[in-house]
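Incident review: delayed structure delivery

Summary: a single-chain prediction request sat in the queue longer than the usual turnaround. Root cause was a stuck worker, restarted by the on-call engineer. No data loss occurred. The affected request and its eventual output are reproduced below so the record is complete for anyone auditing the incident later.

Affected input:
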Amino acid sequence: MRLLIAALAFAFFIVCPRMAGITSVISKSASVDLIKLAVVGTLVSLPLIVVMVYIFSRYGLIAALAFAVFTDLLSAFVIKEINFKAGIETLIIALFVIVGVRAASYISSLI
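Output delivered after worker restart:
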């Protein structure tokens, strides 16, 4: 039961506006159905999520974020929309995530 509750929390967490937006961009770019892309993309992403979690558990947050940024850049390259601005934006988002994770840990330790 604990695993089911934790998995549900994970499923709710993994859904985000950024993912919906990029799914729409990829769908339009590739001229494929949005829902089909979401389903097939989710299945394809499962091993990548496992790899990212393994990297996090073995090497820490920075290594996992580096992997995530790398996969973001691969996504942009695959859809041929990569440019300098996209790379900078990806790095800025990663920095905000690092700061957010560190701040959340620090603040929750005070409670």
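Verification: Helices lie at 2-14, 17-30, 34-59, 61-78, 84-110.
Action items: add queue-age alerting; document worker restart procedure.
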